[in-house]
Design a protein that fits this description.
With about 300 residues, the protein is an alpha+beta fold. A hairpin with a 5-residue loop joins strand 2 and strand 3. The longest helix is centred in the N-terminal third of the chain and has 38 residues. The chain has 2 domains: about 230 residues, no CATH class; about 70 residues. Helix content is about 60%, strand content about 10%.
Length: about 300
């Protein structure tokens, strides 16, 4: 299962859990029920943010593995990439090795495998699996911006937000949504936290899809252009406005309709996967990013057609 598939299916599961009666507040007099619902929602606050962290870690590993398989000369690395592929990767490897040691595992095979990739980076472009987002227990907003900046995407959060809005995400600020969710997770995990309305969690689940698809669009396009040695990218990085979007929208009547950049409906099908079998090749040809939206116009899923 890919990082995207794992994230989307997990978000759906959390969304389904949030509407269970057991997680809704009852009358103020039902103190025991309301306390159980509060504890359950606090647990989902931890899980929800952890799903975003897991996507960022797993997707970055998928993309950097794809870059490694291109076998490009190490001389093509920018200075920030070179640091990430060597010193940064080694710090992350040792952090992950320590976690394995604490869990009673022998970290030696893991260290040997990952250090071999760091060594490989001296001749060809190769990133150890934990090069990005794996060097500490939790991910913060600066980490996301720094990884994108390493790949030539300046002002990463602003670009994530603008792309997510184009995709249909209702978040007013992607960076604030991420920061607030991180604070809720910390409070729920370590302090018990104040009562958490289910609406806050529902909003973040929607925002998290926009955050993750925006990151994927920018990171995937940057990786593809970097490996292609695209002159415009090498000079100016990635502008989110240059990434065209092909929509697959679900209508109230149950049909999924494919819409190109002109917003005109090009095809329709009641079976999403059948429609995507025709949509994806068109998006690859047009170098477009596919966003799948519900009948309310809000993103539910996506396909990054720049990379596998």
């Amino acid at each position: 299962m890919s990082a995207r598939e794992d994230f989307v299916s997990s978000i759906k599961a959390v969304s389904a859990a949030l509407i269970l009666p057991e997680l809704q507040d009852g009358p103020p007099t039902d103190v025991a029920h309301n306390r159980r619902a509060q504890v359950a929602r606090a647990g989902l606050a931890v899980v929800s943010f952890s799903l975003v962290e897991r996507f960022l870690r797993d997707r970055s590993a998928e993309v950097t593995d794809w870059i490694r398989r291109q076998r490009l000369p190490a001389g093509h690395l920018s200075d920030p990439m070179r640091v990430a592929a060597t010193a940064g990767a080694l710090r992350s490897v040792m952090f992950q090795a320590d976690l394995r040691r604490r869990n009673g595992e022998d970290p030696t095979p893991y260290i040997q495998q990952q250090v071999s990739l760091v060594h490989e980076a001296s001749t060809v472009i190769a990133f150890a699996e934990p090069a990005f987002f794996h060097g500490k227990p939790n991910i913060n907003g600066e980490d996301v911006a720094d990884v994108l900046k390493t790949f030539g995407v300046q002002s990463g959060w602003q670009k994530i937000e603008r792309f997510a809005r184009r995709a249909g995400s209702p978040a007013l600020s992607a960076a604030d949504a991420f920061k607030n969710a991180a604070s809720r997770r910390h409070a729920a995990a370590h302090q018990g936290g104040p009562p958490l309305p289910s609406g806050d969690l529902t909003s973040f689940l929607t925002d998290s899809v926009g955050i993750c698809l925006g990151f994927d669009a920018l990171f995937g396009r940057a990786a593809q252009l970097f490996c292609a040695r695209d002159p415009a990218y090498l000079a100016n990085g990635v502008d989110e406005a240059s990434i065209a979007i092909r929509f697959v929208d679900q209508s109230a009547d149950g049909w999924f309709r494919e819409r190109g950049p002109t917003a005109r409906a090009l095809a329709r099908n009641r079976d999403l996967e059948q429609l995507l079998r025709h949509t994806v090749p068109r998006a690859i040809t047009g170098r477009e990013f596919i966003v799948i939206r519900g009948s309310n116009g809000v993103p539910l899923d996506w396909r990054c057609c720049d990379l596998p």
